[in-house]
Amino acid sequence: MGFEDVEINVSEETINGNDIDAIIEPLWWNVNIYDGEKEYKDDLKKFTLPQIYTFAIEWYLAEVNNGGHDQFFSNSTGIVWEEALNGFKAIGIEDYYTILLEAVNRLGGKPNMDREKRQDQLVEYNADFEDLDHRIYQSESHIEEKILSYIRENQKEFLFKGIVHKPK
């Protein structure tokens, strides 16, 4: 599988289209969560805080809804935990903020940015997230609507026109 450079345009029309993935698509292709903290933080510099928060929240939701907090923290995606936490606070999604903060506290208050060290923390703290996973699965906070509202309130921060490096 090769890669190709593709132009992406996140316009007002994209933002009004209700597809959060399309709105943060530039981050999906430009932010490396797999090769460590330095690469991750360097890649984030290209984007606004609202974009970063939304990106991190979407990773968090995808992982937790697929396999719980254990999956989120044990996979490479766990590197986004701090941006997701700050994003929930910025957007005003208090129930998810509280849940993620509790999960973070169960890993000593600061999950490591390195995947292997974070996995060691899961073992060291013998973290049980079942109750937190259940709270996420039972939540009726209308999170997608809140995220879309936040995006629209900060529309200028999400506009993007540029080239990304995508798999063919």
Automatic annotation (TrEMBL):
Residue ranges constituting the DNA mimic protein DMP19 C-terminal domain according to the UniProt record: 46-154
InterPro entries in the cross-refs: DMP19_C
Protein name, per record: DMP19 family protein
